[in-house]
Amino acid sequence: MAHIHGTSSSDFPLRRFLYPFVVAGAVVAGGWGLAAALAWLLNCAAHTVTFIAHAAGPIGVGGIALKVLSSKR
What we know:
The chain is mainly α and 73 residues long. Helices cover 59% and strands 8% of the residues.
């Protein structure tokens, strides 16, 4: 009887162990990508708020002026 490769019961099924690691790696990479995208969006929002605050100048209510997000120069 001829031996056919891959049909013996003593073979180590590499795919059975490789797929969970590939899926876990994809989940980790996606999580890092999501965290990086969130950090980038928060950075853009902070720069937008700073730009608008400096463009608007002091904010005044009832004769009291409050300078928002400005340096003490």
